[in-house]
Fold:
Amino acid sequence: MEPHATPSDHFTEQERQRLRRLLDEDDIRKLAIKYAHSLDQGDLAPLRDILTDDICCHFGPYGEWQGLNSVIQNFEQVFLDLGGVPFTSMHAGSGHCIHFLDANKATGRRQLMDFMTTRPAIENPVMWLALYDEAYQRTDNGWRISSISVEFLWPERHISAEFSNKKLPSS
Structure:
């Protein structure tokens, strides 16, 4: 039997770069998770540590929202419109693909399944199936989401003119 190769105690430059990229991807994915939990729980204060001050949001039928304070105010109203009770809506995300433009900027796409937990069991709980297209920026305080565009696919289709030409980056 041949002995197994033992990993070196030292990383190559390529391995260090890969580790940096994996750590950055993990930080960005955590933003998406914290964002969903913040919305669903109705605790919007954490958005200040998730979004940039100059965030631009394109939310289809919900409109265009510019700036962190405006985004928080609009989400507060949405939360109240849904009854003001935590987890009335649940944003379940998956399939998060991230593409780095450089060391400090990235884009990503993730899938959204938005459930309404107040509907009777005999009704379909799905409110929306959609895609988030996002931009991320490294700041002095870590990664932040700098742009969000939601492409609503079901039960109503609300997609931007650019969406049909948007492809995921190959790397």
User: Anything to note?
Assistant: The longest helix spans residues 13-41.
